[in-house]
Write a structure and sequence with these properties.
By secondary structure, this protein is of the alpha+beta class. It has helices at about 1-15, 105-110, 165-175, and strands at about 20-25, 40-50, 65-70, 85, 95-105, 115-120, 125-140, 150-160, 175-180. The longest helix is centred in the first third of the chain and has 13 residues, at about 1-15.
């Protein structure tokens, strides 16, 4: 019996160690873009170090409270590029303002970080004016395919603007059709 144990010990000592492994953070479920991540959205897993992207996140606490810049798939390995700062991270004097665009298909083209001018078109006066210049898109909530195109309720987008511009936007939304142009 001692001879068999000695042979098995020699065999295991000669076996290769295998590839280097690393701890990674993955999405626990499919998540839409614009999701503010919580610990329950994430899981820790092990992966072959050579198979993960550079800069992979290894601690879930580094992502908690951050906002997804785009949808992620279930089990997708997370990197800093998949998130942006939390919605509350706006410059001093700025706010996150809701923008209801008349055309949901137009909203579907937006990405967090885009810089846009918001236009208000008044059908009674047949006039249009810029009501918010150089607004930064913060989040575009995910929409299903049947929600794109013209809809009575339009599509919601969250933008970063100063407080005074947010007031002008709210007033324009009450009496005009809102649209955007990219900068």
């Amino acid at each position: 019996m001692a001879a068999i144990a000695a042979v098995l010990t020699g065999v295991s000592a000669a076996a290769p160690e295998g590839p280097a492994m690393i701890t990674v953070v993955k999405a626990k479920t499919e998540l839409p873009g614009g999701t503010v991540l919580s610990a329950s959205d994430l899981m820790v897993d092990h992966a072959v170090a050579a198979d993960v992207p550079e800069g992979v996140v290894t601690d879930p606490n580094d992502l908690v409270g951050k906002t997804l810049t785009a949808p992620v798939a279930k089990n997708q390995t997370m990197t800093p590029l998949t998130t942006t700062a939390a919605r509350s991270a706006v410059p001093p004097g700025h706010v996150i303002a809701p923008l209801r665009l008349a055309d949901a298909a137009l909203a579907a083209l937006l990405r967090p970080g885009d810089v846009v001018d918001v236009l208000a078109a008044n059908s009674e006066t047949e006039q249009a004016a810029v009501v918010a210049a150089s607004a930064r898109v913060v989040t575009v909530p995910a929409m299903s395919e049947d929600q794109t195109g013209p809809r009575p309720d339009g599509a919601l987008v969250l933008i970063d603007v100063d407080g005074q511009t947010a007031t002008v936007l709210a007033q324009a939304a009450a009496s005009a059709t809102l649209s955007i142009i990219w900068r």
